[in-house]
Amino acid sequence: xxxxxxxxxxLVQAGxxxxxxxxxxxxxxxLNTMAWYRQAPGKQRDxxxxxxxxxxxxxxxxxxxxFAISRDNAKDTVYLQMNxxxxxDTAVYHCxxxxxxxxxxxxxxxxxxxx
Length: 115
Known about the structure:
The chain is 0% helix and 55% strand. It is an all-beta fold and 115 residues long.
């Protein structure tokens, strides 16, 4: 079993920064890939950023240069540093991981960027 708990969401003005955290209940070294997805009302859920155990990262074009995903293996936590936030970034952000063939999702944390 894997539990993922996000934190760090909130309300921020455009141009501001926010750091999201995703704490896992097991060693994240067991998880090949961890990622952040987001979903705005009425829109599909999209990949924001992903990171492998080896540290390779992948970002959506819309956040490249503004967001950074990282791991802290000692804390079993993955982070999403979000800079230069835009109103278009407003969404519920979900942490994602996979153990074997089973995918796990966090409960989500709301990020609201005001104009």
